[in-house]
Write a structure and sequence with these properties.
EC 2.1.1.176; globular; N-utilizing Substance Protein B Homolog, Chain A; RNA-binding; RNA binding; alpha/beta
Amino acid sequence: MIKETARGMAVNLLTRVEVEGAYANLLLQKNISRLTDSRDRQFVTLLVNGVLKHRLTLDYALRKHLSKPMSSLPHEVRAILRIGAFQILYVDKVPPAAAINESVELAKNYPKFPGLVNVVLRKVMEKGWDIPWPDLKREPARYLSVRYSHPEWLILRWLKRWGAQETEALCKVNNEPAQTWIRTNTLKISREALKERLISEGISVELGLLVPESLKIQDFGALEQLASFQEGLFTVQDESSQLVAHVVDPKPGQSVLDTCSAPGGKSTHLAQLMQNKGEIQAFDIHNHKLELIGQLATKLGITIIQPQFGDARDLPGIRLESQDRVLVDVPCSGLGVLRRRADLRWQKEEQGLLELPSLQFAILERAASCVKDGGTLVYSTCTIEPEENFELVKKFRIAHPEFEPVNLVEDLPFKLEEKRDIQQAYKGMLQLMPHRHGTDGFFLAKFRRTNPQE
């Protein structure tokens, strides 16, 4: 049994991800609290997320020095090799010799393998990044796939759409550590006052540029232990996701529908903009997730959200043309948040992506039927794939001429700079890209219901 050191825990968690198909972020949330030192908790998170993100590159480097396939090794030994190689190639603060020695110690739990781990990792250290990559010109998809650890089917899609240079830039950003953004709870505190409060709690804080409530934070331990968090002064939400409520633009006293609302980040932001006046029907198909919405609303001091159980394709109890504002943040492939979800790239397949638009369109159509004449409908995803975004919106516009696009140039809380973004926004759509905007990959489209007889 591997001792529960930081590296030992990383081996166990990575093994569970590979064997059980468990989600790394949930495993980390449930397990790292057993480590008392915050530095150990941060190190486990670094190792697990780093190995998952860079797994294909690590395996490519390791295979050069193995006489047998990785698949023939015990899962735990694979994890030990990957953790060792990750530290050697990617973590400057860990001396390579220390990474090797610690990996060999872990391998002693598997008596046949300490020697193999020692030899292979020493060769990785000697070679460093002197790795014989596939030829970029002759095999661009394979090169980008193994060099930046992305599935080849995904690289092929992006190359066809954007070419090698932009695809490489996107891959690089996807492998960077995700930044932590929070949203000020303006029902309780101003952004400036929250910034000063967080600084007094020892946290590095930077004002966001896209959204008036956003703050980027660094150098923090467990957020849930902060008094400011416990008091409901903020919640964690990426800056791109915070844009949605501003585009919906709800007013105090209005009726608002959030069709796919869990865990409640966007619903509670809508409530803030409504000054906690009016009504928000927050639907989700999972009962246990509805509890999360209620808990977040209570913590933030919000009383106008009504969590509702139901399929967004049906929205039971919601009358036709009854809502001033409707938000449709549909289930999607999530391919815009690969840097935030380290294991997500290995959980997706192209066929699954191609099956999503039919579900998304069904949800959008039912949601659209709930919008009042003159009311607005906002569709959003955290993906960058056209089938789920531009193509779906085009299909909706053809099927529903009673909905006209709303110019986003004036609706956004920040000024667009690039010509292609401005052209999109004039047509009521915006695609944010990690390598171009510094946000998660995120898509927005806004429509207004008009009376076709007018």
